[in-house]
Write a structure and sequence with these properties.
The protein is an alpha/beta fold. The chain has helices at 39-45, 63-66, 69-78, 93-103, 160-165, 173-177, 192-195, 238-244, 249-259, 277-283; strands at residues 2-7, 21-26, 29-35, 55-57, 85-90, 112-117, 124-127, 131-137, 145-151, 157-158, 182-183, 189-190, 196-197, 204-208, 226-230, 264-267, 290-292, 298-300.
Length: 301
């Protein structure tokens, strides 16, 4: 599981910082999560292939999270894209994008599937044989979802030494990987545990931006491998966090601690602060494994 931070600052683009956008590589997919201004420039800087993006997840319809989407959709057309594109986001995102395409007479030559979200509760919005994606309902000034990306349990790992020792025919290998026992020609049953190893523990990534402090998401993201949680403010501006329905670094750490996540990644910083190191300092008082997102930064889980 690989996470590329394209942008992680709040509100407006600046000379050296970009609004929210990130790419998650999981289960042979390259998912784009939010799409603030400058997203496609950052994709080029980080040498991430446009052609691998087939699914885009938009948390909410504030500009710093989706104003880069119309340009990216248009660039896909200019690059000769033919593959269909899936866009998941709040109701209204289809109207916002298609109106711009209509006014500019620049319809795409590939099909766009808009999956408009309205549910107040969690729902699975994407699933294949390797990964699932479900919404994490958040509390913000407009309808907002986070997203929980989860690997599925993989096949068991074949014990080469064991199958050789017991002279198990190759024809049984896939059944062994699927967890089945093997019955030999003489009637002997070889337990699956004797012939294979447990698959790696599935990993998960929880993305939570933007939101007021919301403890009721803890059960859904419990034991996530990594949690990205917005930390727009420090506790010294907690009143602004309440007013704007954002979170502080300390509150993000409290969510991470309660959810028993393995690591916390902070982001969506207000640019009023001189150093993002202050966010780590504050959060570390509550939760030990804190990392700071920053434009261009890469994480591997």
């Amino acid at each position: 599981m690989k996470l590329h931070i394209l942008g992680c600052y709040a509100a407006t683009p600046r000379t050296l910082t970009n609004p929210t956008s990130q790419v998650l590589e999981i289960g042979n997919h390259m998912f784009l999560i939010d799409c603030g201004e400058g997203t496609q420039v950052q994709l080029r800087k980080l040498k991430l292939k446009f052609s691998r993006i087939n699914h885009i997840f938009i948390s909410h319809l504030h500009g710093d999270h989706f104003f880069g989407l119309p340009g990216l959709v248009s660039t896909f057309r200019l690059l000769g894209r033919e593959k269909e594109l899936h866009i998941y986001g709040p109701k209204g995102i289809k109207d916002a994008i298609t109106l711009l395409l209509k006014l500019g007479d620049s319809w795409t030559n590939y099909h766009i599937h808009f999956h408009e979200l309205t549910s107040a509760g969690p729902e699975v919005i994407f699933e294949d044989d390797k990964v699932s994606v479900e919404t994490v309902p958040l509390t913000h000034r407009v309808y907002t979802n986070g997203f929980l990306f989860k690997e599925k349990l993989g096949e068991r790992k074949l014990s080469v030494e064991a199958v050789a020792k017991y002279k198990v025919d190759k024809a049984y290998f896939q059944n062994i990987k699927n967890g089945r026992d093997v019955t030999m020609d003489d009637g002997t049953v070889l337990p699956n545990a004797l012939l294979s190893f447990d698959p790696p523990k599935p990993k998960s990534y929880a993305y939570c931006s933007d939101t007021a402090y919301k403890p009721d998401i803890v059960g859904q993201i419990d034991h996530a491998t990594a949690l990205y949680h917005e930390s727009t403010f420090l506790e010294s501006e907690a009143d602004l966090a309440v007013k704007t329905e954002h979170s502080t670094a300390k509150q993000a750490a409290a969510i991470a601690k309660s959810a028993h996540v393995e690591r916390l990644i902070l982001g969506h910083y207000s640019t009023r602060y001189k150093s993002i190191g202050l966010f780590r300092q504050e959060a570390s008082e509550v939760f030990p494994d804190v990392e700071l997102a920053d434009d261009g930064k890469f994480f591997e889980f």
